[in-house]
C-alpha cells in the first residue's frame, strides 16, 4: 500500500522530527535499498512514532472518505505501535501484560483481515508468548539484545586478518567505556 511518494513523505517526516537526544532516530533513508536491513531497535523507533504519525497524515483523507483498506491499515499500524509501547515499557505489571496482549491480538487480526490469503509467521506466534517472559524476567529493557546487536554489527564491519582476540578486546572495552559514559551523562 506504500507508494514511492508515500515513502518520500515518511523519510521527509523522519528528517524534520525533533527528538530528545536520548530517543532513537530511525534512519533518514528508511525503506530505501541503500539503507539495507533495519535492526530491531530501528524498527521499534519507526513503528512507535514515525510511521503512525506519517501514515495518519498521508492517509487521513482516504480514511475520512471511507476507504476501508486504508482505515484498516492505519488501525493495524496504531495497534502495533500500542503493543510495542506496552511491551517496551519499564513496567511489567499484570495490567501492562494484559494491554500488550490485547493490542497484539487485535493487530494480528487486522493483519489477517488485510491479507486473507496470507499466513501468520512464527514471529507473530512468538509475540503472543512475550507476556509470559515479561512476567518471568521483568521489563524487556532488562533482557533485550539491542546493545549486542549493535556490537555484532560493528564487529562484522571490521577486518580481523584472522588475529583473534585483539580487536574483540578493544571493541568490548570501548563499548563498555561508551556505555558507562552515556549512563553518567544521562
Protein structure class: mainly alpha
Number of helices: 8
Helix content: 55-70%
Query: Major β-sheet, in short?
Result: none
Low-pLDDT stretches are none
| SSE series | HHHHHHHH
Radius of gyration in whole Å, from Cα? 19 Å
Number of strands: 0
Mean pLDDT: 86
Shape: globular
- The domain count comes to 2
Q: What is the multimeric organization of the chains shown?
A: single chain
Percentage beta strand = under 5%
Distance between the termini: 40 Å
Summary tags:
globular; 0% strand; 186 residues; DUF4218 domain-containing protein; mainly alpha
Structural write-up:
This protein has two domains: 4-142, no CATH class; 146-185. The longest helix is centred in the first third of the chain and has 25 residues, at 40-64. Helix content is 67%, strand content 0%. The protein contains eight helices and no strands. It has helices at 4-16, 40-64, 68-87, 94-114, 122-127, 130-137, 146-157, 166-185. The protein is globular and about 60 Å long. It has 186 residues and is mainly alpha-helical.
Q: Can you give me a brief rundown of this structure?
A:
By secondary structure, this protein is mainly alpha-helical. It has 8 helices and no strands. The protein is globular.
How would you summarize the topology of this molecule?
Layout: H1 4-16, H2 40-64, H3 68-87, H4 94-114, H5 122-127, H6 130-137, H7 146-157, H8 166-185
Helix pairs in contact: 1-2, 2-3, 3-4, 4-6
